[in-house]
Amino acid sequence: MPSTTPSPLPQTQQISLACAGHTRPVVQLNFSNIITNNNYFLISACKDGKPILRYGPTGDWLGTFLGHKGAVWSAMLNADTTRAVTASADYTAKVWDAITGKDLITLSHGNIVKSADFVGDTDLVVTGSQDKAVRVFDINRPDAPTTVVSHTAPVRSVKWSKHLRLVICADNNNSINLVDPRASSVVKSLEAPGIANISLTNDGRLLSCAAGKRILAWDLDTFTTVKDFTVDYDVSVTAINPERTRIVTGGRSDLLIRSYDFATENQIDTHKGHHGSVHDACFSPDGQIYATGSEDGTVRLWQTNPGSEYGLWQFRKV
Predict the structure, then answer these.
(1) Which of 50, 136, 250, 264 has its CA 20 to 30 A from that of 145?
(2) Where do the WD repeats start and stop (predicted)?
(3) Which residues fall within 8 angstroms of residue 122, CB to CB, at 6 or more apart?
(4) pTM confidence score
(5) Does residue 114 belong to any structural domain of this protein?
(6) 280: containing domain
(7) Would you give the distance in Å from CA 202 to the centre of its chain?
């Protein structure tokens, strides 16, 4: 139900971790699943054309994927973090060995590739392009893609919902389509004027969207709207934690990171750290931290519950 949030709260104190390494705007982030012993990883896509893999809890640099000849708009890890897929302005998507950094497969397109993701734990990759097409590639036969849906506008984002086994595609014309790649058919369409960003919870059951001054979320089990509220700033990104207790947003012009209570929609806190628009945000698989990527070329890590010991956040007992 639409509502108006209260005036912004005073900025609250939190020490974020700034992860350097990129030289241009960071446009997409993706945390891996937990691998072993609470270990997980973070990959970032950047307009400098050099995706970076980091150790998730601390943001420490692990390696850079070298091979693209244009801006990289998207970077995702597969289910067991053995492979990465990236989408680039050089008219290609690439599949990488996430452990060695080796360029495994190049998926050629006829236009800029804005987004890519793995189709579950298969050898399939889905891509979204400026030519308005969503394609599925079998990496064992990379020269024979299948166009599963054509949009009326350039495709800005594709995400695989492992729960529904559907591809979620957002375009530049305010449309979000949920597509069955096996039947090449649209199962459900959603409208969100002014889409800036879409995000999936880790379980693939909840889709959120930043659209103008609105924050929206849909339950993908029932295709019902569970959140739709309006704020007094332009929202550039939304992300919801795995427990569905917190919504994090980024501001397009005021550069602030805000948190809201998922149930009440009340603003919890606001933080400043970036020096440019926030382009993406995502929660770690355990929900303890979230990452934000910005026009300023940095990735920042934030605690969901500031003051607890986690990763590099260690506190002395007096």
Answers:
(1) 50
(2) 65-106, 106-147, 271-312
(3) none
(4) 0.92
(5) yes
(6) 197-302
(7) 11
